[in-house]
From TrEMBL:
Name this protein carries in UniProt: Phosphohexomutase
A Pfam family assignment: MPI_cupin_dom
Domain Mannose-6-phosphate isomerase cupin: 244-320
Origin organism lineage: Bacteria, Pseudomonadati, Bacteroidota, Flavobacteriia, Flavobacteriales
Molecular function per GO: isomerase activity
Top-rank lineage group of the source organism: Bacteria
Amino acid sequence: MDIQHYPLVFEPILQDRIWGGTKLKTDLGKNIPTQTTGESWELSAVPGNVSVVKNGPLAGKTLTELMEQYPDDVLGTNVHKRFGKQFPLLFKFLDAKQDLSIQVHPNDELAKKRHNSFGKTEMWYVMQADEGSRIIVGFNHKSSPEEYLEKLKSKQLIDILNQVPAKKGDVYFLETGTIHAIGGGIVIAEIQQTSDITYRVYDWDRVDANGNSRELHVEEALDAMNYNTTDTQKTYTKDENKSNTMVDCPYFTTNYLPLHGTTAIQKSGTTFTVYICTDGEYKFEVEGETYSFKKGDTVLVPAAIKAFTLTGNATLLEIYIS
């Protein structure tokens, strides 16, 4: 059986975070190593955190090995042409027991110049939100570097930021330069460019068990930040057994696919597709073989698989590169 015949699942890369909790285990069935596990990197080609195939004949191979050996089959012809043998996206689940730091990500140009990296355009899909939880995203009025630094110094930064109540099903699209933080009490599915560049500007004066605070990047963030107000929350349709567009940007397209029954999918071979199951369970059938997936599973469908069916009762996020 070769690469094009089956959907790939990877070993989760679990990350301990000062703000993390236990919902990745209780809600998503991840085998977390600590009581403060904040992130499950589901599909990653970030150096030092490269995903390893968990299922089937390719088990044990890394995502970067697949890129080297089967770039057109896995990535698709267009994606391979555009990005070379690099996997261009990073997929995560996040469990924010506490507020994440207030932070910003640089654009492609700045990230290339400073870090030889992609920038970090990202989107969030809220999978679960405790009563009273909120998302911090963008400024609540047109700001400036001077006002931002003054409020940061006086520990009043939150006063000029936009705080939005969080609820299940909310979608936020964060272009680079958008100041933001995920609030405590929220589980999120995150889709982003392959990048781990974060400028942390305020961390709520937190310290770790040894009394150390995390590094801040106040100066680096100054020219990376968009001081205008931004329209980050996205609305979308929810037609059953159809791909409903949530976000369509140069870096990725994400659709909402509420599956009830069976739907047949046809692909062109130009891009890989990823399915993130945020609720329920479903079966993936290709060439007479059936694979079962459930809430918390992230599946990479190689571009070489051009026809398959999905059957079940599940909520799926469908991601590819246009």
